[in-house]
Amino acid sequence: GAVVSQHPSRVICKSGTSVKIECRSLDFQATTMFWYRQFPKQSLMLMATSNEGSKATYEQGVEKDKFLINHASLTLSTLTVTSAHPEDSSFYICSAPLGGGETQYFGPGTRLLVL
Amino acid sequence: GQNIDQPTEMTATEGAIVQINCTYQTSGFNGLFWYQQHAGEAPTFLSYNVLDGLEEKGRFSSFLSRSKGYSYLLLKELQMKDSASYLCAVMDSNYQLIWGAGTKLIIKP
């Protein structure tokens, strides 16, 4: 079946460094991918919509210069957390819609810990 | 504004049946999803409803009433492994997912 992968699954970094998270659709092409952030015991929060061949669309309150998104191909979107701080520690999840968007497939998530 | 409501927590007994409700108010509607999420893991897809009625998939069923802005997830023959959070999400007119906060389901033996 359709699978979305994320890499890395976990990352620990020092404050001030940048971290890149990859999201890949393995069995299908995705012109759109979504990036979410989840804090403990809270629902997923949509951060941005990644669009292949054009700029990402960011949700209100999400800093586009801090969370850089690049949709390099029809199967790959990357999220780069620049100059990470401890408050950026979270669980980052991507998803990609299959076909007409009826089903969203989620990546397994990337747990980021900024020290 | 857009809003998804579902109970914060529910408790049920192993082997029993539980119904998790979800009500929504969104700008447009392109389907309602239910996801299961175990602690520390990404959500996994359970069901998708776009037309009114009941969709059954094994032990899990999902119901939708668009006129009432209401859905429920029905879990039968509960197993301990069903202990998880259940997320209701609606796809709005822009094909973006509006998420509920999730219902934590606790299964007791």
Describe the protein:
Helix content of chain A is 0%, strand content 55%. Chain A has strands at 4-7, 10-13, 19-25, 32-38, 44-51, 57-58, 67-73, 76-81, 90-98, 103-106, 110-114. In chain A, a hairpin with a 5-residue loop joins strand 4 and strand 5 (44-51). The radius of gyration of chain A is 13 Å and the shape is globular. The termini of chain A are far apart. Helix content of chain B is 0%, strand content 57%. In chain B, the strands form two sheets. In chain B, strands 2, 4, 5, 9, 10 and 11 form a six-stranded mixed β-sheet that branches. A five-stranded antiparallel β-sheet of chain B has the order 1-3-8-7-6, with no helix packed on it. In chain B, strand 7 and strand 8 form a beta hairpin. The radius of gyration of chain B is 13 Å and the shape is globular. The model of chain B has no long low-confidence stretch (mean pLDDT 90). The chains are: A mainly beta (115), B mainly beta (109). Chain A binds chain B through residues 32, 34, 42-46, 49, 91, 93, 95, 97, 101-109, 111, and chain B through 30-31, 33, 35, 40-45, 48, 50, 87, 91, 95-97, 99-102.
Write the layout of secondary structure elements.
The complex is a heterodimer of chains A (115) and B (109).
Chain A: E1 4-7, E2 10-13, E3 19-25, E4 32-38, E5 44-51, E6 57-58, E7 67-73, E8 76-81, E9 90-98, E10 103-106, E11 110-114
Parallel strand pairs in A: 2-11
Antiparallel strand pairs in A: 1-3, 3-8, 4-5, 4-9, 5-6, 7-8, 9-10, 9-11
Chain B: E1 3-5, E2 9-13, E3 18-25, E4 32-37, E5 44-49, E6 53-57, E7 60-65, E8 70-75, E9 84-91, E10 97-99, E11 103-108
Parallel strand pairs in B: 2-11
Antiparallel strand pairs in B: 1-3, 3-8, 4-5, 4-9, 6-7, 7-8, 9-10, 9-11
Question: How far apart, in Å, are the first and last alpha carbons of chain B?
Answer: 40 Å
* Cα gyration radius of chain B (Å): 13 Å
Average pLDDT, all residues of chain A: 87
For the report, how would you describe the main beta sheet of chain B?
6 strands, mixed
